[in-house]
Amino acid sequence: MNAATTAEEFRALFPALRSTVWLDTPGAPPGADPVVEALRDALSAWSGGDFSWQAWDDASAQARVLFARLVGAEPGTVSTMGSLAEAAATVAASIPPGRRVVVAAEEFRSNLFPWLDRHQVTAVPPRDGVTRVEDLVDALDEGTELLAVSEVTSREGRRLDLAALREATDRVGARLFVNLTQSLGVLRFDAAAVRPDYLAVHGYKWLLCPRGAAWLVTRADRLAGLRPLAPGWKSTSPPHGYFGGPMRLAADAGRADASPAWLSWIGARAALGLIGSLDPARVERHCLDLAGSLVEQAAALGFRRTSRGALSHIAVLHAADADRLAGRLLRHGIRATALGDRVRFGFHYFNDETDVLAVLRALRADG
Questions:
Q1: Contacts of 327 (CB under 8 A, 6+ apart)
Q2: In 3D, which of 282, 312, 25 has the Cα closest to residue 161?
Q3: At 365, is the pLDDT very low, low, confident or very high (cuts 50, 70, 90)?
Q4: Distance from the Cα of residue 331 to its chain's centroid
Q5: H or E element, residue 198
Q6: Which among 118, 261, 291, 318 has most CB atoms closer than 10 A?
Q7: Confidence tier at 322 by pLDDT (50, 70, 90)
């Protein structure tokens, strides 16, 4: 597969799409054939006893290189972990306790609770139900240690201006922690414009990985202060030893590596190979166009978008009875998520205009 892969060819790699309109990737995507096949091969080898755990263990290191290429980072600045919460908690534990951290009040809990556990958190409430960049900026002052944000808000589908937030944190001398879990794999990331102090991603959504493969990128000038949350045999430089001490942390971001859950990383390696084969500009344009098409045509049926501002690939529509609407969609073979007073639809490169039309037919249907 190469960068000329079309959306049609990509779509054909997902067997679930033959029977389901999958718009629930903000929750989790269906399995892609190359990823599932890699896992099947590993399970077969495990069952037959003809596997090498050393080779399995190397999958996380190989995935680290693929991920670094995807975000424009050096592999030595990338730590391999098991979740977004682990990445955030690692950073939270690497800065002095009790510092002031600014977050959105409606932030996903994995990028909220780790800061609450160790620091004085200023939670910026939504205004008119929407998280606004200007409100996050207004909450910053010279006493702020760190701003933690998600590029795309999971509940609103709102795309925040990361470059503007970087400028704001620079003005007050604060660090910037960016969560790309709901955007990387579809939206392009401009590392030069954002220059995050820390960047975290859990790969089980838009990167199509099994759950349990996540990454933390630490800017080179912050590496010396990075401390492993759970030091172990992966915390030292390779070749890794197994027994005895002393504990000499690796000089690079590998010091914060978690001991890898092998099957998750075997799948992640295959998934990143697949994502890396696509044209990022084409993927972003395709997905934004589909989300825009749904928002525009649903508005004509009386379903309004929950927030204005920059459109992302996640379209969130207000619904007075979201659970009932999600149930109706499911009866029409459409997977989406009800979130209180709204229904969330996420568009990946494997989606197409027929999926939009299927949603519109369901929205018009009675009961």
A1: none
A2: 312
A3: confident
A4: 29
A5: strand 198-202
A6: 291
A7: very high
What separation in angstroms does the CA of 144 have from each of 107, 171, 311?
18, 11, 29
Residue 143 tokens read as: 């006493």
d(CA 13, CA 31): 9
Fold adopted by 53-275: Aspartate Aminotransferase; domain 2 (3.40.640)
What tokens appear for 210 in the block? 């099994």
- pTM flag (> 0.85): yes
What are the CA-CA distances from residue 286 to residues 187, 298, 324 (Å)? 10, 18, 29
* Mean pLDDT, residues 33-38: 98
| Cα gap 248→241, rounded to integer Å | 11
Spatial CB neighbours of 50, under 8 Å, sequence gap ≥ 6: none
Alpha-carbon torsion, ordered 298, 302, 303, 304, to 10 deg:
100
Percent of the chain with pLDDT over 90: 92
What's the chain's average pLDDT?
A: 95
Provide the token pair at 215.
């990454």
Residue 87 tokens read as 């990445």
Cα separation values, 272 from 85, 222, 265, 325, Å: 21, 26, 10, 34
pLDDT in tens, 290-306: 999 999 999 999 999 98
Which of 33, 23, 9 lies closest to 356, judged by CA? 23
Can you tell me the mean pLDDT for 270-293? 97
The CATH class, in words, for 7-30+279-364 is alpha beta
| 242 compared with 202, residue with greater pLDDT | 202
Distance in angstroms (rounded) separating the CA atoms of residues 355 and 121: 41
Q: What is the DSSP letter of 127?
A: B
Residue 70: partners with Cβ closer than 8 Å, 6 or more residues away = 184, 272, 275, 276
Ranges of each domain in the chain: 7-30+279-364, 53-275
Find out whether 149 and 177 touch, Cβ atoms under 8 Å: yes
- pLDDT reading at 3 higher than 50: no
pLDDT tens per residue across span 148-176: 999 999 999 999 999 999 999 999 999 99
Mapped onto helix, strand or coil, the DSSP state of residue 156 is: coil
Token pair recorded at residue 30: 């269906």
Does residue 236 or residue 309 have the better pLDDT? 236
